[in-house]
Amino acid sequence: MNGKGGTGKSSICAFLIAHIIENALGSVLAIDADPNSCLPESLGVKEPETIVGTCDEISKNLSKIPAGITKDRFIEMRVQEAVNEAKGFDLLVMGRPEGPGCYCYVNNLLRGIVGDIAKGYDFVIIDNAAGMEHISRRTTAELNKLLIVSDYSIPGVRSARRIYDLARQLGIKFSGAYLVVNKVTGPVEPLAKEIGRTGLGVAGTVPYDEGMVDWNISNKPIFDFHNETIRGEIANIFNNLMR
Ligand SMILES: Nc1ncnc2c1ncn2[C@@H]1O[C@H](COP(=O)(O)OP(=O)(O)OP(=O)(O)O)[C@@H](O)[C@H]1O
Ligand SMILES: [Mg+2]
What we know:
It is a single chain. By secondary structure, this protein is of the alpha/beta class. It has one domain: P-loop containing nucleotide triphosphate hydrolases (Rossmann fold, 3-Layer(aba) Sandwich), CATH 3.40.50. It is about 45% helix and about 15% strand. β6, α7 and β7 form a beta-alpha-beta unit. The two termini are about 20 Å apart. It binds adenosine-5'-triphosphate and magnesium ion (MG). Magnesium ion binds next to α1. The site of magnesium ion (MG) has 5 residues, from α1.
């Protein structure tokens, strides 16, 4: 999942995860790769273990690393244990590094381990930070589907196009790339030309919903948010991705 800040990446990730779980479509690993994300909370997971937390703990206790194992290998092993087991799905959270240079390190780590851990799941859904950071670092060098979220605006769609262009220029491999237009408050037609320029297939459009505002202040997990229109659109997006 990628896209400009605030377009709804995390919300759509959470809805897709809820859709898969509630319809028993397969096992899910959710990866929160955004250091400033709320994905765990929206999935009802409070104070999850994080990769950063695991790394910090190891760095503070270097003497506990078993002989014959490098620090990096040990971190890799322990990060597998940082997978949070939640109700119906697993969750891996990057966390918030402190200090310069840490982001690079954790991003590299994430790239190295995601492939290994991912193999055990039917679905792996990665909620990325806004912008091009993850793409340009090639944290997720191999994806099955790239989903770019735009808001209901021409700048939003242009931003999606830049993200898609960059992903292709960097040679990131994916079997399909899609656009989701979120927070739609009118006809999509005025955006059609701009959408056409992106070269992305439209996986779905999600209406702006006032209920989301209420849900935001309710502090409840997404599983408790039942909005037939949004749920219907999410099912549509899921089906388009699976096609
Ligand atoms: N369809 C919608 N209707 C109304 N509000 C929405 C909709 N989708 C998302 N929002 C709201 O928009 C805000 C941003 O959503 P979200 O956090 O999912 O975006 P994001 O792209 O993950 O943001 P960030 O770039 O900060 O990670 C939230 O308050 C969310 O509840
Ligand atoms: Mg987010």
